[in-house]
Design a protein that fits this description.
The structure holds 2 protein chains of 2 kinds. Chain A is 67% helix and 1% strand. By secondary structure, chain A is mainly α. Chain B is an all-alpha fold. Chain B has one domain: MetI-like (MetI-like fold, Orthogonal Bundle). Classes of the chains: A mainly alpha, B mainly alpha.
Amino acid sequence: MREIEPLPAGTQPLPVDVPTTAPVIVAEMKARTPREIAWRRFKRHKLAVAGAIVLVLIVLLAIFAPWIARYNYGHIDLANSLLGPDGKHWFGTDNIGRDEFARVLYGGRISLIVGLSVALMSGVIGTVIGAVAGFYGGWIDNVLMRITDIFLSIPFLVVLILAVSLLSGSVFDIVLVLSLVFWMPNARIVRGVVLSLKEKEFVEAARSLGASNRRIIISHILPNSIGPIIVIVTLGVAQAIITESALSFLGFGVQPPVPTWGNLLAGARQFTLIAPWMIWFPGLFILLTVLSVNIVGDGLRDALDPHQSLGVRT
Amino acid sequence: MGRFIIRRLIYAIPVLLIVSILVFVVVHKVVDPTASLRANPHATAADITRLKHALGLDKSGYHQYLSWLSHFVRGDWGTSLIAGRPVAPDILNALGNSIVLGLVGVIFSLIIGVGIGIISALKQYSWFDNTATSAAFFGLSMPNFWFALILQLLVGVYLARWLNGGNALLPTSGATDPNLIGFHLVDRIRHLILPSIVLAVQIIAVYSRYMRTSMLEVMHSDFIRTARAKGISERRVIFSHGVRNALFPIVTQLGLDLGTIAGGLIVTETVFNWPGMGAFFIHALANGDYPQVLPWVVVTVSSVILFNLLVDIAYAVIDPRVHYA
């Protein structure tokens, strides 16, 4: 599927019947693959590029935490507890003298891993269920959508808290439970996309050539719905990071001593008045990460899936 | 229409049953209400057995659930396992607090959000629109519990030190001043301000975005061009024709948001010690107090279902194109 890139701003559009022999114009009319078009659209969205850079920086900080942080995140130093930020401890220290900078970086590892895994897992579950429901329709669709309705009628933080309290609070459990709550909106969106795609001519063409349902879904429908799916997964990362930190903050998420941005804040609560830096830094990292993920997600939506835009930026 | 409503109400019954069974099973599995007695070194095994018998915990889970259900449908909401008090007044009290906070937050957000959305749409890409867009991004990305903590810091520490000699400008915790007896409106309002700001920030972000999109779409439609062509004043075009039609998607969102008020705001209520439904749930769950958790779930879920239905009905009333069989 090839598309012609629209002429750059300022160029007069050509009437259709004018021969395109003028050399300058021919160069502009070069056909591009959908991926090239999307990439060009994304690059035009300056804010999204900035968001992507910030995000890459945060991810690098988390990955290289052992080399960047001067202290071990679990190193207790009671003589230096509750110190404000200074040249040695950039983000200060906590109530038992652990270096907050190291803890925020290591906490970022967990929070980012949880966010990414949940987004991918719920993206896969949602895509499979949405595609099956949308493609086959009938009772399958009905059953799947009723289940979705039931889950959506309970506030999802409640579902999470109940589910988490059944499990142990390891990182794996949290990823599992969050994914089980997050797939439902994804399934709805993918179902909608598949419903509209399955009526398209190219699906009919594939069927007339004898393609099986499985083959039609995997080779024809899914590749064409990849745009919305990428957007869902990206925005899912932001949602998952916020939700994980809220859960951990309430004491139902990843359990200490494993640091995450959420349980760092939970631990800081009783020291709000005497050690406000323990509140500021983990929260700022959550805000910065979620903000840049959301901005990148919005840029991707403009680039890959222009019809879905909420009008956040056009 | 009548049949549609009845069908939806009947459909709610199995949903409530399934949800309450699931919640009962989980609460039962997770927490042991006799834990505090077990931890007491002076308590003998006989004491624990006696307590279990008194609470009905020695019967099978199946029996406990059915007994709870048969009482509940007859209007008896049971007694708390821990406090030994009837559940109904406590829940109604928490519900009242959550409704006050929720309504104040939602109504303010509705007015501000819709206003921002209208101006953004009418002046697309102006500095106002761009600022509103960035602000909405911030609002949607802000972890609400952290925002609540920062507000407490600002009002209770930084501004207090700077403006008020160290005394907090506004109460940062609770719904009333424990030293005051009786109802004091000013005190209530002062306690409401911070939690409702936290609630409002996110709702304003969502509403202003929806309103902007919807308003842009409406203002580009044919009936607006017709209205202008008839020579109606721009004011009337915008308000009587534009805003009225652009409000439809907001009505949906508003209905859904109102439905979730009854469940309380778990995070915000926890940070501000607001004695609402969210805090009630966390507390009851931590104690394994299933007679408290189950009515909570029924109230919360019923409210969501009821408001979903109201949204659909409201749609049929305000939009003549919608019909239900």
